[in-house]
Design brief:
2 domains; alpha/beta; six-stranded mixed β-sheet; 536 residues; elongated; 25 helices
């Protein structure tokens, strides 16, 4: 039975340890220049540690630095129950990722740091590498090849983006890797009932991390049904089906709110609109596949995408592989079904304003795994005498190609230029003790992105309906201020771009009866920062 394979020996585990240490080292090196610049990353902290989900601040209320930090860090008023309530009120995502964020925040109680979220990612990245290494070892019995493949995977632009984004996608990728591993186990040992409980736990865990995980489970199950029918082993459909049913039951018991949340979240209307527009399905199906290739192959995605599709077609329709490596062929069939069904369905469901490569990180991991398996299997079938050496050479070629894609690529998602960021941070920090006025009519944008820089001593959010407040004029933060920061966002109009700098200036003048003149500091992450100085 080819997928039962052999267990790694003691020397083989040295390679596994090396892979994990290599992963850890790459993670730390890349993470040191990570900056929290994406609004959803701020929401990860807010939902975990605040009194409400996502939209935090009212307009026309003066907030202190302490109040702002309280929504980002674990403090005395936070609790596990309140975190779950925030997740429920948000309605968009299930709670498991936030459970891990809560634990990490609890360990770092009282502080806000990128490492709180990155620590969660690092743990599940190591788990992902652990499972992928074992899959490849079980298939090809080479610890060196498994470790080389893990170097390629970890250094992939897709993986680097996945591990650096402080959201639930790295956790989801871990569950996808574990799901692939246990499906491999099932193909090799369908008659052993002890395997199926693990599938229940993994499926429920993935679904409670990201609802989109259900598409992986559906694709694997459909292929299991077809493969069992093809082999004349229909009896094995039942335990797999029961496992999937049990996973749904377990997820429902743990989080019964997933059903109403799917139909009542803020994006439900846009998703329904997508489903009612079947004319765009074909375009979106291909666009979902395109997104996968762009993230993996970067600027070479057209050529490499064509090559990869040809590779998969050759593998799937190769009679010799199907005959000699039947179980490996079945595993690849499951992987390909999961990859392409997921990419197409997620793209069809996701509203245009939410479409992003981050939803596809887990599918990209499965595609990278499928590429490894196809290449190494073809070599083992057709170059048997020198198969191990040929696999190592092919791995080195893939590693070189991966690094070229990285060097000439688009860059890691949501990963800023640390040097430029820190320079602007230092400039803005000079005014961190001043009042900041956020002159923004859509405050959700700046609620999240204000942390792109530094947390001010006082901040007030205003809009077109905000009234001048006399009580603020008596506060020394206003009455004695010589400088303040005004933050706004540019809007496109028929006459060009405008912002609401004047709104911020007039608010200060109307409140304090003191005149100010503004000077542009810089623009960053969609926001424009001004420093305003009192004019005598």
């Amino acid at each position: 039975m080819e997928l039962q394979g052999i267990k790694p020996g003691k020397k083989d585990y040295i390679y596994l340890v090396f892979s994990l240490l290599f992963t850890f080292a790459v993670f730390i090196i890349v993470a040191k220049d990570k900056r929290v610049t994406f609004c959803d990353e701020a929401y990860s902290y807010m939902i975990t540690n605040s009194h409400a989900a996502t939209i935090q601040f009212d307009t026309n209320v003066l907030y202190s630095r302490e109040q702002i930090e309280d929504v980002l860090a674990h403090t005395s008023g936070d609790s596990f129950v309140r975190m779950l309530r925030n997740v429920l009120s948000d309605k968009v995502h299930p709670p498991l990722y936030y459970v891990f964020m809560y634990i990490s925040s609890l360990i770092a109680a009282g502080s806000f740091s990128k490492w709180i979220g990155l620590a969660v990612n690092m743990l599940f990245l190591l788990g992902t590498v652990y499972y992928l290494w074992h899959i490849l070892y079980r298939l090809f019995h080479s610890a060196l090849l498994s470790s080389l493949s893990m170097m390629i995977y970890v250094l992939s632009q897709s993986t680097l983006s996945d591990m650096m984004l402080i959201r639930m996608y790295m956790v989801m990728t871990f569950f996808a890797a574990a799901f692939a591993y246990y499906n491999m186990d099932i193909i090799g040992k369908r008659s052993e009932s002890k395997i199926y409980p693990a599938l229940v736990v993994i499926t429920a865990g993935g679904f409670l991390t990201q609802y989109y995980f259900a598409f992986f489970a559906v694709a694997f199950f459909l292929m299991e049904v077809l493969l069992c029918v093809r082999r004349g082993e229909k009896k094995y459909i039942k335990p797999y089906f029961i496992s999937m049913l049990a996973a749904v039951g377990a997820a429902t018991v743990l989080w019964p709110f997933w059903i109403p949340c799917m139909f009542m979240n803020s994006h439900a209307g846009a998703i329904a609109g997508n489903l009612l527009n079947p004319g765009s399905f074909l375009y979106k199906m291909f666009d979902g596949i395109r997104i996968l290739q762009v993230s993996i192959f970067q600027r070479a995605y057209v050529v490499c995408g064509i090559i990869v599709v040809c590779l998969f077609i050759i593998f799937v329709f190769n009679r010799r592989i199907r005959r000699e490596k039947t179980q490996i062929w079945e595993l690849v069939i499951k992987l390909l079904a999961a990859i392409f069904l997921y990419a197409m369905v997620v793209r069809m469901l996701t509203p245009e304003y939410l479409t992003s490569g981050r939803y596809y990180y887990s599918a990209e991991m499965l595609e990278i795994l499928a590429i490894f398996i196809c290449v190494y299997t073809i070599i083992n079938v057709y170059i048997q005498q020198y198969a191990k050496a040929a696999c190592i050479i092919s791995g080195l070629v893939l590693l070189l190609g991966n690094e070229m894609a990285f060097y000439y690529g688009y860059g890691i998602d949501y990963y800023t230029d640390a040097k430029g960021y820190d320079s602007q941070y230092s400039e803005l920090a000079k005014y961190s003790d001043a009042v900041w006025i956020v002159a923004e009519r859509e405050t959700y944008f700046t609620d999240a992105n204000i942390w792109d820089m530094c947390i001010p001593e006082y901040v007030i959010f205003i809009d077109e309906d905000s009234e001048y407040i006399e009580e603020y004029a008596a506060l020394p933060e206003f009455s004695e201020a010589e400088e303040l920061v005004i933050i706004t966002r540019q809007y496109a109009t028929n006459d060009g771009y405008i912002d609401f700098l004047d709104r911020g200036l007039y608010y200060f003048i109307g409140t304090t009866k003191r005149f100010v003149a503004a000077e542009l500091l810089f623009e960053r992450n969609g926001l424009t920062y001004y420093v305003a100085r009192v004019v005598d």
